[in-house]
């Protein structure tokens, strides 16, 4: 498989890919190795994860550069991702032992009722490229710490990063058959799904998630899915400093080139402040410099998948043809590399694809609303349900709005953020189950009820 640099179109390297035979062999080895891994005290597994965190720090520059080269992510944002991932290592190291400890929940006469947790067995993690470290950690770190073996297929667009993580886990002391990387594209993912995994933890698009759930139908395999989003953000007429809000919204739209599952994907603005806010948002978005991902001044790098440029252009063309006003950007950048400039569409509405289908790029539609009820109705008018955000200095009003929006995460006066201490869970087409938080540790365990009579 060729690894292509999306900023130049040049080949970085080739890597060997797996096939039906090698994935079967790797699965068998992981199955055989898992019981001994599960038998080790959780404190030992936690110690290995801590060492892994130290190795990540040691290799941050190499990892960040490779990630930037293969995904087009600005180098500083790649470093930020490595640093941010250390928080996840910390969370899982601090929480796993307590989360897995058997808990006496009740004494009923002479019967003790105890809640216990067992590992699932062998977990398959099929992963995405946009935050290759952060999204991988949601699945494979808790899965390993709970005593599962893991077969990990990084995305074909972030294979170098995935292989580096694999080497570091092994260097930290995780046995090679307990954490096993599989490389390849969709066809290799489909081959993996033929094998009798105990759990599939998938991060990726709704369309692939749907294929995976269809492939597993009837097999009773635990399925945890982190899928796409069409995350709404509402700026109320009590949002406070408009400049600061515009700054935050521009970052929510453009960070990681907009290729974030929780990127701001559609914006609603109260009619009292619409015109002023739109002007400020345009100015803030204009300041995001697009260019060479390795350059220190670059804020928007390359779009990772070349085919996506056409998709972005189609969303812009569709919106303009239906009456949106193109205020900024809106044209694929000519020349080598996959570049699309920050793009702002005003006067958007829900007849336009840009307000309905995940964009996953540096482009945003903005729509005027007359009140909170209209904003809530529009925010809920989506198949997706990952995050929603409200800017409102009146906290009671802001919370009341967020409580009515059907998403797994609500942000008041902030956006586009993830915390390992809180569950990450999408509703509707945004996913299935929860990762992160204690829920995301228990996601990789079987619960067991013990009735112990003396
Ligand atoms: P994708 O669905 O194209 O690919 C994801 C993975 O699935 C890749 O490893 C790919 O090789 C594999 N795959 C593709 N077809 C397959 C098949 N038929 N069978 C088995 N495996 C298959 O997604 P992507 O482009 O890598 O990632 C972008 C998407 O991921 C966006 O929709 C984004 O919102 C979503 N995402 C969600 C979260 C979240 O936490 N909710 C986080 C990151 C990304």
CATH class call of the largest domain: Alpha Beta
Mean pLDDT: 98
The CATH superfamily of the largest domain is identified as Aldehyde Dehydrogenase, Chain A, domain 1
Computed CA radius of gyration, to the nearest angstrom: 23 Å
CATH architecture grouping of the largest domain: 3-Layer(aba) Sandwich
Which structural class matches the secondary elements?
alpha/beta
For the secondary structure, the number of strands is: 20
The tally of structural domains comes to 2
The gross shape turns out to be globular
Main β-sheet, spatial strand arrangement: 12-13-14-11-10-16-17
The residue ranges in which pLDDT falls below 50 over 5 or more consecutive positions are none
- The fold-level CATH name of the largest domain is Aldehyde Dehydrogenase, Chain A, domain 1
| Strand content bin | 15-25%
Ligands in the structure? nicotinamide-adenine-dinucleotide
Q: First CA to last CA: what distance?
A: 61 Å
Q: Percentage of helical residues?
A: 40-55%
Individual helix count: 14
């Amino acid at each position: 498989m060729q690894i292509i640099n999306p900023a130049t179109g040049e080949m970085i390297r080739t890597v060997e890919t797996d096939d039906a035979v090698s994935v079967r062999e790797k699965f068998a080895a992981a199955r055989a190795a898992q019981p001994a891994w599960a038998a080790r005290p959780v404190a030992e597994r936690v110690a290995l994860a801590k060492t892994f965190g130290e190795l990540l720090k040691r290799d941050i520059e190499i990892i960040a550069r490779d990630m930037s080269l293969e995904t087009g992510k600005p180098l500083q944002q790649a470093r930020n991702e490595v640093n941010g991932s250390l928080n996840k290592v910390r969370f899982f190291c601090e929480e796993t032992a307590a989360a897995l400890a058997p808990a006496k929940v009740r004494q009923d006469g002479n019967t003790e009722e105890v809640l216990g947790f067992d590992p699932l067995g062998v977990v398959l993690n099929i992963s995405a490229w946009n935050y290759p470290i952060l999204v991988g950690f949601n699945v494979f770190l808790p899965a390993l710490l709970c005593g599962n073996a893991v077969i990990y297929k990084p995305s074909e667009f972030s294979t170098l990063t995935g292989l580096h993580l694999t080497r570091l886990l092994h260097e930290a002391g995780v046995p090679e058959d307990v954490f096993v990387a599989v490389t390849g594209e969709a066809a290799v993912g489909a081959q993996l799904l033929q094998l009798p995994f105990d759990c599939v933890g998938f991060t990726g698009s709704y369309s692939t998630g749907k294929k995976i759930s269809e492939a597993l139908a009837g097999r009773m395999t635990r399925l945890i899915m982190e899928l796409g989003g069409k995350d709404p953000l509402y700026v109320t007429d009590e949002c406070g400093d408009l400049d600061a809000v515009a700054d935050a919204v521009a970052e929510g739209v453009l960070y990681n080139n907009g290729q974030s599952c929780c990127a701001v994907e559609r914006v609603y603005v109260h009619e009292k402040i619409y015109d002023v806010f739109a002007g400020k948002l345009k100015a803030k978005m204009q300041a995001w410099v697009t260019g060479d991902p390795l350059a220190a001044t670059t804020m928007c790098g390359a779009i990772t998948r070349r085919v996506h440029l056409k998709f972005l252009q189609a969303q812009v063309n569709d919106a303009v043809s239906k009456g949106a006003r193109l205020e900024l950007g809106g044209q694929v950048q000519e020349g080598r590399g996959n570049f699309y400039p920050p793009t702002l569409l005003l006067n958007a509405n829900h007849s336009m694809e840009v307000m309905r289908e995940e964009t996953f790029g540096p482009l945003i539609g903005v729509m005027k609303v007359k009140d909170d009820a209209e904003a809530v109705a529009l925010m809920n008018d989506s198949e997706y349900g990952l995050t929603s955000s409200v800017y409102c200095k009146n906290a009671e009003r802001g919370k009341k709005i967020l409580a009515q929006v059907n998403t797994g995460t609500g942000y008041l006066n902030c956006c586009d953020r993830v915390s390992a201490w809180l569950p990450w869970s999408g509703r509707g087409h945004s996913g299935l189950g929860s990762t992160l938080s204690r829920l995301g540790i228990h996601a990789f365990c079987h619960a067991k009820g013990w009735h112990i009579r003396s």
